[in-house]
Design goal:
The complex is a heterodimer of chains A (100) and B (501). In chain A, α1 runs antiparallel to α2 and α2 runs antiparallel to α3. The longest helix of chain A is centred in the C-terminal third of the chain and has 31 residues. By secondary structure, chain A is mainly α. Chain A contains 3 helices and no strands. Chain A has a single domain, classed as Helix Hairpins (Orthogonal Bundle). Chain B has a domain of 212 residues. Chain B has a two-stranded antiparallel ribbon with strand order 1-2. Chain B is globular and about 70 Å long. The chains are: A mainly alpha (100), B mainly alpha (501). At the A-B interface, α1, α2 and α3 of A face α6, α7 and α10 of B.
Chain lengths: 100, 501
Amino acid sequence: MLEHILSLGAYLFCIGIFGLITSRNMVRALMCLELIFNAVNINLITFSNSFDTQQAKGEIFAIFIIAIAAAEAAIGLAIVLAIYRNKNSTRIDQFNLLKW
Amino acid sequence: MELELDLSFFYKTTILPECVLIFCLISILILDLILKIKDKNVFFFISLVSLLLSIFILIFQLKEEPVISFLGNFQADNFNKIFRIFIALCSILCIPLSIDFIKCTKLAITEFLIFLLTATIGGMFLCGANDLITIFVSLECLSLCSYLLSGYTKKDVRSNEAVMKYLLIGGTSSSILAYGFSWLYGLSGGEFQLQKIADGLVSTEMYNSFGSLLALVFIIVGIGFKLSLVPFHQWTPDVYEGSPTPVVAFLSVASKIAGLALLVRLFNIVFPFLPNQWHSLLEISAICSMILGNLVAITQTSMKRMLAYSSISQIGYLMIGLVTGNFDGYTSMIVYLLFYIFMNLGTFACIILFGLRTGTDNIRDYSGLILKDPLLTFSLALCLLSLGGIPPLSGFFGKLYLFWCAWKTGLYFLVFIGLFTSVISIYYYLKIIKLLITTENKEVTSYVQSYTVSSFSLLSKNSIEVSIIICVIASIFLGIFMNPIINILQINLHLNTFTNI
């Protein structure tokens, strides 16, 4: 049972990384970031259920990660708004001012 | 219940420096809210005083024994305290740089100070964090504030682009780090404190397994992004070019100090069984950083981009001390870090001053600056030469000690690469200095012509110039007083059991 859930976590992690690399929209990239954090949460809660049923430190870490991911998403969306005001689009590939 | 009260009395002094900063933060917020103060310089004064106060508290605490407080979540030993002093020192030097910049660009001052102080607090907690939750939360406290700071000029499209890249890459790196932490948690059988994780890895006999190697790789990738080690450096030049320059100056030193402290503590405590693996991984990335950072810096045309690559190569030099892995290695790393703070912040201060007066940061536009402002030219040249490592300046002594320690432990290849790339770095630093000084065809660029010199009398200095002068004096003369600094460090670190592992 443990390895199935761990592979689910690894699968979600890979989807998140893949989505971050390929997605062309800022909002979609933020959603992929959330996906990676959720993969971490799945891992933590699984481990906590199997090894650490007394203190449940994994669940506590998961709560912290959820809160921080929310803060990060809030900052990300604020940046999306600022970008949209300046350029009228949120596509990542249109940002090519800064390069070599 | 009584026991907890007693313990909480003990806790107060361990995080007293951070508490001073938090108190200052709250008082700035409240003062700005209730009093309609027109002269915002009061806030700079408050924050500078509180940072100085926290440095003094930390220096006085250096004599105390190492303690682990907050039920094992926070460790205060001398190694951490030195790094916490360095981070507070960076903020002290960076705040004067930002005063004039913010006044010229007409941004909000209070929010800038609050973000900067919060980033400082996050970095200071990160240096002393002793379990995975505290490490993650304080790391995010540092990086979330860095995102906000680097997107501070929100009307500027370049700043928008920089913060977008920084947020996506920083978020990815911290999630990768958290994934590595989750594996550590599982492999150690449900432990969170660093020392208990190491014990747990032994008791579950997982310390040499594939899983712990995987966790090690994930953690190196996550911290490598923060430190901008070479395979993970792609974001650095873009973020440095787009962000406001005082913010770049802060990021280029503070995040590196915090990241290095985290790297040293985490790997020495949690992975003492895999020293060969993490040493070789870090050695490869150090070599790549030195070579690629210095080679690419030659071709750059923007000053900030050039400094970004130069900072990538400097983190490679700092890694030499970490890879050396013994007491001398860590001491040399700390000494070089101290010199690096002054050299790098001095260079950035000169660039901020030039950028404010002319509005450009292209290397080409610096030509013939000596005709207009000899003192600025002189200080920029000295800081750059010190970064490159020219003999009488402090950067030379720092590098020499670093290479000597590595040579003694037998890392000949690393030292050879370091020496070779230092020569390359001297080439591109000298190219800028040549551009600054030579006036062969007697024509200066329009930017330099529009440069207006303030009177350099002793009374009417602006804050950037004060900061420049401190940094230049430190980066010239600190090298001469290197022996006392090393002695102080060795005496203080000697009491500490951690680096002797």
